[in-house]
Every structure is written in structure tokens, then in C-alpha cells.
Design goal:
The structure is a single chain. This protein is an alpha/beta fold and about 575 residues long. The protein folds into 3 domains: about 5-75 and about 335-440 and about 475-485 and about 505-515, 3-Layer(aba) Sandwich (Rossmann fold), CATH 3.40.50.10490; about 135-300, 3-Layer(aba) Sandwich (Rossmann fold); about 515-575, no CATH class. Helices cover about 50% and strands about 10% of the residues. The protein is built from 24 helices and 13 strands. It is globular and about 85 Å long. The two termini are about 25 Å apart. The chain binds 6-O-phosphono-beta-D-fructofuranose. 6-O-phosphono-beta-D-fructofuranose binds near residues 216 and 517. The site of 6-O-phosphono-beta-D-fructofuranose (F6P) has 15 residues, from loops.
């Protein structure tokens, strides 16, 4: 799987040094000049795929830097890593697993067997179960303890067991099917569960406990509180029967789900070769299939499979995820831009920045190379953003005039997701204008001319000009979807997934583990009893003070609020 080359640090390679040497020269060049030097730049630096146009012509590089970056990808053996990924080799080496989320959507070139079992066969069988369940639910054939049909489904899950499904359901609001409402509770802050449950009727509510490990304390706490809520509504019934009728589990630890009390027929599984943040294509997507119908869920999978094919087969220089990865490596690792903004000009995509935060940062926020030594370069950007129009009236000032450069992805679609006249043109014009303004800026001369045309005095012009100058030179990509559909959404999310993988492979890190989330989780479970006991021996001064303050103001906790229903035994599995 790994060759000799991948063990030597990429940052020692000649091509790495060549790229480093090019940074000062590129920083001097105006983005606008790149267009005059290369009249065909817009089309040369664009890729048209079945679902969208990726225009990366407003990027801070020319053909020769791009050629160098492609050489870097070759030096890093990206093509071999890509082949190993799709062949099911254990590329998640620190957890000793393959990474096969493309198999969930039919994105492999060839079936892979894990421990002698066909991955494709397992996936199809589980999808079939999912489909049957959704039909049952949509037909009103699923009833609660009193015989009332299930009308509301609450997904209890966090991170990858929440963000993908909710992001997709929000994005596909124009593609809803059936009349079962889907709600999400991800936070262990009881306020969220309380709010959601306040509007629901216990008799007709079904809970999906979505957890790969079935040990995540936030999710299990919510699941136990949901059961208590049902018990309060139906005190005559046993916890066992409520669990059987009102709970479904989606997990890679089916035994733990059954131990919790979910009926085997209601346990939908996925596998440890699916990373939590890449799991929306698995049974974790059940809420999507409920909200949008199984056919739309299938179309989402098909769109992603199309992107798998593209990533697998397209040569590096025509490969959209690879190009996006190289741009990110260029900006973040070489140019030193630490952040990257995701700016959807499509309200339905409002959760995409949050989704990509987990997908990208939990994957590439690392500081150890595959060889187990500390990196001497940055491995990935801080991802942030929100819908573009709202951002324009909030943080775009920073994008335009702060000395920092924040590369951005603008994402919109040609077809509006509504039929209100005039809105879409305004929306798209804003998106196009913003990337243009970031690229070109406005220089002092133009500002002065504009102010003079408004009749300002020379003194006033001199005084105001510095404040109105925009340096420009801020790069961006634009992804223009033909329309936002289940298919194009699948392609868009898979584009980012493969960009993340390619970036990690080039920078010689393992993108599919997430050890960095374990430390805090462990500490929280140790501190939790101390909130009640007040025994603070061994705690640092700040933490001890915070706990003491909490205890003093709250009147000290007498109960930890431990659940009455016993938690499933930890399956001891990493996500
Ligand atoms: O945040 C850490 C993490 O392990 C994620 O990788 C995962 O998506 C999330 O927790 C939820 O884990 P689980 O699905 O096992 O409850």
C-alpha cells in the first residue's frame, strides 16, 4: 500500500522547495493580470462536470504553479493512494481499517470483500431494509404504543450521526416526500431535547438513536431522556415495550443497540469501514430517506457515485477534487492562509459550512505525518462560513478589507429552488459580484476618481481614499450547480469528501482517524462526577475554580442526573 517514497517527508522534496520558492513571486501578482496574460484563463481554469461548473480561475496561481502542484501530487503518490482507497486497502492505518464510504453509493470500480464478505452485498441488503422501513412509515403502517400512526421522527445523534442527514434534508427542502416530520437533537444540552419534545405527541413519535459506536455519551443521554419522556406519557407500559415500539437504532455496534433494548428488526447497521463524518450515505441517511423519500435518497447516492467515478478516473489535471485539494494545499500550506470560507448562495445549503467543518477539520486537523513524526507545515485550513447574503451583511467586511487573505468557495445554482420573481437574479448577481470584488478590489486612483465624480473636495478625497481602498487579490472558487437536486447534492458533498482525502494524502497525514476528539471526551467523563462531589484534588486552578463557582452558584448538585435505564456497554470502538 505505501511505497518507499511516501515514508520520506514530502516537505523535503525538490518540488516542495520549488513551490515554496514561488510564493513571493505569486504574492506580487495581481489576480486581474492573470486574466490579461491568459485570455482563455476562465475556461482553462474551469471544469464542467455533469452537475456543475467549477470555476477556479479566480485563484492565485498560473499554469506553471498549477503544473508544480500537480507534480507535488505525483510526488506524494496521490494516484496510488487513490487506488488503495478504492481497493479497500487499510488506509486508515491508525485504526487498522479500510475507508469505503464510496461502496455505500455504488462508487467502487470493483466489489471489495471484507473478511470474506462482499461489501456491495451487505450494502444492498441494508439499503433494502431501509427502503422497506421508509415505505412502512410513509404508508402509515408504523404505529406507536396507543395504535396511533407515527407522524414524527426524532434523530438523536451528534457529529457525523447528525450533520450529514440534517444538512441534506435542509438542502433538499424542495424534494420532501410523505408527511412524516423529521427533527434532530444533537446537543446534550437538555434545552434542545426539551424544545423538540415540547411540540410532539409521545404516542406518535419515533426515535432514531444514530450512533456508530452506540457509546457516545451525549447521544445515549438524550436517548435515555427520550425514553423517560415516553414513560411519563405511558406509565402503564414497560420501558422494554416502549423501546421496542418507539426506538430504532442506526449503528455499527448492533449488539450494543440490542442491549439497549431496540428490537433486532429495528436495528439498521453500517460498518466500521465507514467513518462517522462520511456516513450519511449509509443507514445514517435514514432520516433523509424518511424526509425526502427513498428514491431521492437513492438519487443522492447516485450523484455521489458519479463523483466517485470522476475522482477515480479523471486525470489529475482534470480532476475536480484533486484541483480543489491542490488549491487548498497551495493557499493553506504554502501561502500561509490559515482559513477557508464556504459561502453558499442558496438558502437550502445553509448547513453546508457546518457539515464541511466536521468533514474537513476532523479529517485534516492533524500534526503528525503518516511516518509518526511532527509535521513542519500546516495540514488544513480552518473552515468556516454561512450563507453568502447573510455573510455579506456580517463578516464580508473582513474578507474585503482585513489584511488577512481568506480564500473562499462560492456555491450557487442556476435554477432557483422557488418561484418568486426577481429574487434569484439578485442572489446570483451578488454571488458573482462578491468574487469579482474580492479578486479585483479597488485601487486608490479609482476611489479618488469616484469621489471626485461625486463632487468631493480634493481634501476630502485625500482624507477618505485610504479607507475605501480594497486591496483585492483575494482568491475564490465558484461552484455553480445546474440545480440543487438530490443528485447534485450527492456530487457536491462527494466532491468535498474527495478533496479532503486528496489533501491529506498529498500532505502525508492520515485523514480518517480523529484522535484529537478523544482527550476532551475522556476528561469530561472524569469531571462530571466532580461537579457533584466537589472533590477537586489534582485539578488545575482554573478548572477547580470553575467547578467551585458552579457548585456555589447552583447550590451544589445533589444528583448527577444519571439515567434510570442502564446504558449499553461501551463497544470500545473508535469512530
Ligand atoms: O466528534 C467525534 C465523533 O467521534 C465523530 O467522529 C462522530 O461523527 C461523532 O463523534 C459521533 O459518534 P457516534 O456516531 O459513534 O455517536
Amino acid at each position: 500500500m505505501q511505497d518507499a517514497q511516501s515514508h520520506s517527508s514530502i516537505s523535503q522534496s525538490a518540488i516542495w522547495k520549488q513551490l515554496q520558492a514561488r510564493v513571493p513571486e505569486v504574492q506580487q501578482r495581481r489576480l486581474a493580470d492573470l486574466f490579461s496574460e491568459d485570455p482563455a484563463r476562465a475556461s482553462n481554469f474551469s471544469l464542467e462536470l455533469p452537475e456543475f461548473l467549477l470555476d477556479y480561475s479566480k485563484s492565485q496561481l498560473d499554469r506553471s504553479v498549477l503544473a508544480n502542484l500537480l507534480d507535488l501530487a505525483r510526488e506524494a503518490n496521490l494516484e496510488q493512494w487513490r487506488a488503495d482507497f478504492f481497493a479497500g486497502k487499510p488506509i486508515n492505518a491508525t485504526e487498522g481499517r479500510p475507508v469505503l464510504h464510496p461502496a455505500l453509493r455504488g462508487g467502487l470500480a470493483q466489489d471489495v470483500e471484507i473478511e470474506g464478505v462482499s461489501v456491495t452485498r451487505q450494502v444492498s441488503a441494508e439499503l433494502e431494509r431501509l427502503k422497506e422501513f421508509v415505505v412502512l412509515l410513509h404508508n402509515g403502517d408504523l404505529t406507536g404504543y396507543s395504535g396511533k400512526r407515527i407522524t414524527d421522527v426524532v434523530n438523536l445523534g451528534v457529529g457525523g450521526s447528525h450533520l450529514g442527514p440534517q444538512t441534506a434534508i435542509e438542502a433538499l427542502r424542495a424534494h420532501r416526500k410523505g408527511d412524516v416530520a423529521v427533527h434532530f437533537v444533537s446537543n446534550v444540552d437538555g434545552a434542545q431535547l426539551t424544545d423538540v419534545l415540547a411540540g410532539l405527541d409521545a404516542e406518535s413519535t419515533l426515535f432514531i438513536v444514530s450512533s456508530k459506536t452506540f457509546t457516545t455519551s451525549e447521544t445515549m443521554t438524550n436517548a435515555r431522556s427520550a425514553l423517560k419522556w415516553l414513560q411519563r406519557a405511558a406509565p402503564e407500559l414497560s420501558a422494554e415495550s416502549l423501546l421496542q415500539q418507539h426506538f430504532v437504532a442506526v449503528t455499527a455496534s448492533p449488539d450494543a443497540a440490542q442491549k439497549f433494548g431496540v428490537l433486532p428488526a429495528r436495528v439498521f447497521r453500517f460498518w466500521d469501514w465507514v467513518g462517522g463524518r462520511f456516513s450519511l450515505w449509509s443507514s445514517i441517511g435514514l432520516p433523509i430517506a424518511i424526509a425526502c423519500g427513498f428514491e431521492n435518497f437513492r438519487a443522492l447516492l447516485d450523484g455521489a457515485a458519479g463523483m466517485d467515478r470522476h475522482f477515480r478516473e479523471a486525470p489529475l489535471h482534470e480532476n475536480a477534487p484533486v484541483i480543489m485539494a491542490l488549491l487548498s494545499v497551495w493557499y493553506c500550506t504554502f501561502m500561509g492562509y490559515p482559513a477557508h470560507a464556504v459561502l453558499p448562495y442558496e438558502h437550502a445549503l445553509h448547513m453546508l459550512p457546518a457539515y464541511l467543518q466536521q468533514a474537513d477539520m476532523e479529517s485534516n486537523g492533524k500534526s503528525t505525518t503518516r511516518a509518526g513524526v511532527e509535521v513542519n507545515y500546516t495540514t488544513g485550513p480552518l473552515i468556516w462560513g454561512q450563507t453568502g447574503i447573510n455573510g455579506q451583511h456580517a463578516f464580508y467586511q473582513y474578507l474585503h478589507q482585513s489584511p488577512e487573505v481568506v480564500p473562499a468557495d462560492f456555491i450557487g445554482s442556476v435554477a432557483p429552488g422557488h418561484d418568486l420573481e426577481g429574487h434569484h437574479e439578485i442572489l446570483l448577481a451578488n454571488m458573482f459580484a462578491q468574487s469579482q470584488a474580492l479578486m479585483n478590489g479597488v485601487d486608490a486612483e479609482s476611489v479618488a476618481r469616484e469621489l471626485a465624480a461625486k463632487g468631493l473636495s480634493p481634501e476630502e478625497i485625500k482624507r477618505l481614499t485610504p479607507f475605501k481602498v480594497h486591496r483585492g487579490g483575494k482568491p475564490s472558487n465558484t461552484i455553480l450547480l445546474k440545480e440543487l437536486s438530490p443528485r447534485s447534492l450527492g456530487a457536491l458533498i462527494a466532491l468535498y469528501e474527495h478533496k479532503i482525502f486528496a489533501q491529506g494524502a498529498i500532505l502525508q497525514i492520515y485523514s480518517f482517524d480523529q484522535w484529537g476528539v478523544e482527550l476532551g471526551k475522556g476528561l469530561a467523563s472524569k469531571l462530571e462526577p466532580k461537579l457533584a462531589s466537589g472533590s477537586l484534588a489534582g485539578e488545575d486552578g482554573s478548572t477547580a475554580q470553575l467547578i467551585e463557582y458552579y457548585r456555589r452558584i447552583s447550590g451544589a448538585v445533589t444528583s448527577t442526573g444519571l439515567p434510570e435505564v442502564e446504558a449499553a456497554e461501551p463497544a470500545g470502538e473508535q469512530v
